[in-house]
Amino acid sequence: MNPENDHRNQVGIPQSATTFARMERLPPLLMVLYLVMLAITVMFVILVAAYINARMRSGVPTGLHALPRYFSLSTIVLVVSSYTIGQARRLYAQDDLASLGRCLGATLLLGFVFAGLQVLGWRELVLYGVPFQGAASTSSGQFIYLISALHVVHLLAGILFLLVLLLRVLQADRDAVRGLVFIRNPYHRRQLRLLGTYWHFIDVLWVALFAVFLFMY
């Protein structure tokens, strides 16, 4: 074979990037976030597997108790919050700090509403005869509390990051010079990307957990 006809040996022909090459080009913070999300996924997979095992071994038929309606409402709220946070990068690219602040504020509010609805969902579980502790408690019921509570904890971590970023946006929006510096800083663009990626991940994670609850509860 003539090496001159082999495109792989020709100078200047772009080579397809390998997986490791693409990973090396990722920003360090984004790589750390991906590793954190992987660890969270593994943890919840183990918990869901343990919940399914406990649910199957309990012998209690599915549909014996109604799934808390607040869990359904909280799912809708979280999906809406994922849409609002998805607008943040577009507004940042348009240099619209005022709208960006409202977008982040709405997402923050929806995050708190989701957490509140989860608490109401736990109260509803107690009313339906599925307490966390006591003689009537079961291991499968305890897993529902544990899994949903851990998800709320991870959501609160995102809320804390969101709150810090929101305060920075509001501060920058008060002054034209600060606003210009904020918009031109690539670090803030990366922060928005990290926040959006994590928030969408938490959203998809809850939808998957909710689907498991619907099927196994």
TrEMBL record:
Subcellular localization(s) per the UniProt record: Cell membrane
Major place of residence: membrane
Signal peptide feature range: none
Family matches, as PANTHER family: CYTOCHROME BO(3) UBIQUINOL OXIDASE SUBUNIT 3, CYTOCHROME C OXIDASE SUBUNIT III
Topology within the bilayer: Multi-pass membrane protein
Membrane-spanning residues: 32-54, 66-85, 97-122, 142-170, 191-216
Keywords assigned: Cell membrane, Membrane, Transmembrane, Transmembrane helix
UniProt cross-references to InterPro entries, sorted A to Z: Cyt_c/ubiquinol_Oxase_su3, Cyt_c_oxidase-like_su3, Cyt_c_oxidase_su3-like_sf, Cyt_c_oxidase_su3_a-hlx
Family matches, as Pfam families: COX3
Family: Belongs to the cytochrome c oxidase subunit 3 family.
Cited PROSITE patterns: COX3
Domain Heme-copper oxidase subunit III family profile: 33-217
Name of the protein described by the UniProt record: Cytochrome oxidase subunit III
